[in-house]
Amino acid sequence: MAETTSPAVERAESAPSFSPLYQQIKSLLVTGLEAGQWQPGQPIPSETELAARFGVSQGTVRKAIDEMAAENLLVRRQGKGTFVATHAEAQTQYRFLRLTPDAGGPAALQRRLLDCRRMRAPVEVARLLALKAGEAAVQVRRLLLADGKPVVLDDLWLPGTAFKGLTMERLEAWRGPLYRLFEAEFSVRMIRAEEKIRAVAAAPEEAALFGVAPGAPLLSVERLSYTYGDRPVELRRGLYHTAAHHYRNELG
Amino acid sequence: MAETTSPAVERAESAPSFSPLYQQIKSLLVTGLEAGQWQPGQPIPSETELAARFGVSQGTVRKAIDEMAAENLLVRRQGKGTFVATHAEAQTQYRFLRLTPDAGGPAALQRRLLDCRRMRAPVEVARLLALKAGEAAVQVRRLLLADGKPVVLDDLWLPGTAFKGLTMERLEAWRGPLYRLFEAEFSVRMIRAEEKIRAVAAAPEEAALFGVAPGAPLLSVERLSYTYGDRPVELRRGLYHTAAHHYRNELG
DNA sequence: ACGCATTTGTTCGTATGTATT
DNA sequence: TAATACATACGAACAAATGCG
After folding, report:
1. H-helix or E-strand containing B167?
2. Best exposed site among A5, A27, B197, B217 by fewest CB in 10 Å?
3. pTM for the whole thing?
4. Chain A positions with Cβ closer than 8 Å to B
5. Tell me: the pLDDT tens digits for B196-247?
């Protein structure tokens, strides 16, 4: 019997109390993820156990998980279970990087760390990251290279409080995607991002770096990454050299 | 009772015979869409009627429609029915155009048609559109302007046979998105597209058009649009002036 | 190698809620 | 108000993949 007028679970704070049961279940699961109740790459309880725990049918839990899987928060694996999504999945090295070599195949990129320093967030950075004026931030600069030639120059800004302990050494020692480091060591999971893309002229230093003439066209990719609850936690400004690579996008 | 070993419907040609029932239903519905059985903007039969017609439960039809709605092939409206997606939806003027003004709000763009001619497809165009060498193609060139200033220069290529009767006059007379014209008058529905984005230097004529210096950076957006069955039906090369606008993208 | 238990995936059926006309 | 259509929720059964003993 559908008892939608007397929900079997306490509603999450953000959802209206008349929201469907499966949405309430979803809120509870998201809250659990946010609280670190289940770690990235680890399985959450089975559908039947969650159904028993929340006092709803398995189908209702299923629908909640379906939506979360569609949002890349969870990954379902038949016969094994449902797992918390991670940025360390084998298939896609960089889940958010859309740069692709013109001549087929996925990008094989080397990394070179340029800089990592703590400072007060510049006003523009503070505004986008929703920091108070003068709050601490971490800036990271790094290079991605294909066949030894620079292709991407990244400039990252992170909230200082959440990323206490992020140092040059820590970054140098890390093998794997940055977002994997962030979720594993700092409990900050990037789940969504917005990018603003422009064509810009290379400044002299940038031109030298990429081996192009000053004023040559480069792709500017400004990314704002969000964690649970649509809270922005990373600002990234990338310059892409799109001579032998391009930014690939799917429209649906 | 689940009778998955003896499917209640004939399988569609592309799917293996052991595919789930709802996938087979989905194939049948896609085939119907492709055949023009239901027109864009029009409702398809109700879930209960489809269930009766195909001899499956309503839940199975529902799951098929769910996937098609997720792929933007159909649009569900509670209380009204399920409708064939169209490029004339009120909310989004241009469903595939990601250009956005830097200062908030959606883009309000005027159009100016520059050219429309029929010719043999150049080899590169023919290759991408899967045309035979020397087959006919239609080329359209047009401008999008914001506040009277050019922002986008579009260069389109369409298969000549499918777009017989597409003329300058026809285009001039049309009010609304091009893709709406294509689906309404030529029965060609764009359902998906892939874009390759680069920063390029403005050629002299392009520079004059946009009012920038020759060599100034412009965004090059090469779009290949597909219809049902992943058949490419449009090649579009756009040049975007990204001084007061940007290309907006969502990463999930 | 085989079978069993676990977990997600598919399918059916039924009842009720909510939005639209 | 009534009829229609999609949306939510429950329960039950079997299929398919996985891992373990």
Report:
1. none
2. A5
3. 0.91
4. 70-72, 95-96, 98, 100, 192-201, 215-220, 223, 240, 242, 246-252
5. 999 999 999 999 999 999 999 999 999 999 999 999 999 999 999 999 999 9
Other beta carbons less than 10 A from residue A130's beta carbon = 11
Residue range B186-192: mean pLDDT, rounded: 96
Tokens 């279940």 appear where? A25
pLDDT digits (tens, 9 = 90+) for B29-48: 999 999 999 999 999 999 99
pLDDT score, position A105: 77
Q: Which residue has the higher pLDDT, B6 or B88?
A: B88
B210 in helix, strand or coil?
helix
Q: Domain coordinates of chain B in residue numbers?
A: 7-84, 99-247
CATH of A99-247, one of 3.40.50.2000, 1.10.10.10, 3.40.1410.10, 3.30.930.10: 3.40.1410.10
**If DSSP codes are grouped into helix, strand and coil, which group holds residue A146?**
strand
Q: Measuring CA to CA, how many Å separate A15 from each of A11, A163, B72, B92, B221?
A: 7, 30, 26, 27, 40
Name the average pLDDT for chain A.
Answer: 92
Cα angle: B39, vertex B53, B75; to 5 degrees: 35
CATH code that applies to domain B7-84: 1.10.10.10
Q: How far apart are CA A30 and CA A82, in angstroms?
A: 14
Reported as a single tens digit per residue, the pLDDT across A157-205 is 999 999 999 999 999 999 889 999 999 999 999 999 999 999 999 999 9
Mark yes or no for CB contact B198/A219 under 8 Å: yes
The DSSP bridge partners found for residue B236 are B156, B223
Residues whose CB is less than 8 angstroms from the CB of residue A61 and which lie 6 or more positions away in sequence, other chains included: A22, A25, A47, A50, A51, A54
Strands in B110-120's sheet, in edge-to-edge order, are A99-101, A245-251, B192-201, B217-227, B231-240, B149-159, B136-146, B110-120
Q: Of all protein residues, which has its CA closest to the C1' atom of D15? A: B4
- How many whole angstroms separate alpha carbon A77 and alpha carbon A46? 11
Can you read off the two tokens belonging to residue B168?
Answer: 């300058």
Minimum distance, in Å, between the CA of residue B45 and any CA atom of chain A: 24
d(CA A134, CA B242): 31
